[in-house]
Design brief:
Blueprint: H1 2-36, H2 41-72, H3 79-99, H4 106-136, H5 145-166, E1 171-172, E2 182-185, E3 188-191, H6 192-214, H7 216-226, H8 228-233, H9 238-264, E4 266-267, H10 273-286, H11 291-313, H12 325-339
Antiparallel strand pairs: 1-4, 2-3
Helix pairs in contact: 1-11, 2-6, 2-9, 2-10, 2-11, 3-4, 3-5, 3-9, 3-10, 4-9, 6-7, 6-9, 7-9, 10-11, 10-12, 11-12
Length: 354
């Protein structure tokens, strides 16, 4: 008993020391960089805008992780490849429309964007449903480690399938004139594509939240999330609800894939790994299994990644701080897991599941 108490006290002391060190960095770094005057208000606003745009993508992908976890209590590590497949399949539609000259005029560009998005969503949704049917459904009653390993294998399978079918080189999305340029808010330019990404992501996230909270299908999803066996006894088609969950996650990942391609202009077979990992981090930050938490976690992570290198690292004199934004993201994950394992908002559903 004495050893256990001593160990707990040591762990508590270490957590407090870590917290003090983190708070010191969070105060000293910004103080130094703000005092230097290196960045003006326009720079900080630009950092925030880019962070919100990037965070919107993380949030859309994170919703797929959190939906599947809420229903099946598993981490679908192949979800990053579902995102990749949407971007990749959308590329072929974009390339065909561009060759046909359908992306030149304003009306044509709007219709073309809609077609590209629908094709990407159809592709990513199909792959998400096939993953559930082939890879995960036979293992539904297996120990949790088994579907986790299967998800990693499915991720690698999808990566190298796309590489084998379409090559390992970069594919460049066509430039859409409608999305060129920027709006000006005062003296701050805001790229049109960033506005599109943020507005589209917020609209989709709001629609998903209302769907889960207000519709009959959403109530069925929440019932299955609480207890699959009891939900089945109440007449709910559990398999149908699970497929619907994968479809929703896949559709959101497909939209995120197109938006990502519009910002960065390129797709490649392994592009889903890093955004998928960041989106999983965002889901954990917000509280995995919690839809608003995934939204908040994605936006928060994007803003911290954008502001962090300049705000926290440059003031400490760290060379090449912008190359350490991934380190900031995953350090943030570790800190949240240490001090608040349930995430920022916690998990709103019951702890015990069937």
């Amino acid at each position: 008993m004495r050893r256990s108490t001593t160990g707990e006290q040591l762990a508590t002391a270490m957590r407090w020391l870590t917290a003090i060190a983190v708070v010191g960095v969070l105060i000293y770094g910004p103080f130094q960089i703000l005092r230097s005057g290196k960045y003006g208000p326009e720079n900080w606003i630009a950092f925030v805008i880019f962070g919100l745009s990037q965070g919107s993508l993380y949030a859309l992908i994170a919703l797929g992780y959190t939906l599947v976890y809420g229903i099946l209590r598993m981490i679908n590590f192949a979800h990053g490849e579902v995102f990749m497949s949407g971007a990749y399949i959308g590329f072929f539609a974009a390339d065909a429309l561009n060759r046909a000259g359908r992306l030149d005029s304003t009306g044509g560009a709007l219709l073309g964007l809609a077609v590209i998005t629908l094709v990407a969503v159809a592709g990513s949704t199909t792959i998400a449903v096939l993953l559930e049917r082939i890879a995960y459904r036979p293992l539904r009653r297996a120990p949790r480690l088994v579907p986790l390993i299967t998800a990693i294998g499915a991720s690698l399978f999808l990566q190298y399938t796309f590489s084998g079918l379409f090559g390992s080189g970069l594919r460049t999305y066509p430039t859409i004139d409608l999305l060129k340029g920027s709006f000006r808010v005062g003296s701050v330019p805001i790229l049109k594509v960033h506005v599109l990404v943020f507005v589209a992501a917020v609209g989709l996230m709001t629609a998903l939240y209302l769907f889960v909270q207000r519709t009959r299908a959403g109530r069925a999803m929440r019932a299955v999330s609480e207890d699959k066996d009891t939900a089945a006894l109440m007449g709910i088609n559990v398999d149908g609800v699970i497929v619907q969950t994968f479809m929703l996650g896949g559709a959101l990942a497909g939209v995120a894939g197109v938006l990502h391609a519009l910002i960065y202009g390129q797709v490649v077979f392994n592009m889903g790994f890093q955004p998928g990992l960041k989106a999983f981090t965002a889901a954990v930050l917000g509280g995995i299994g919690n839809v608003p938490g995934a939204m908040l976690g994605g936006l928060f992570l994007g803003v911290v990644e954008s502001l962090g290198p300049a705000l926290f690292l440059e003031g400490l004199g760290i060379p090449a701080p912008h190359q350490l934004k991934d380190a900031i993201a995953f350090s943030l994950l570790v800190l949240v897991l240490v001090f608040r394992p349930t995430g920022i908002l916690g998990e709103r559903v019951a702890e015990k599941r069937a």
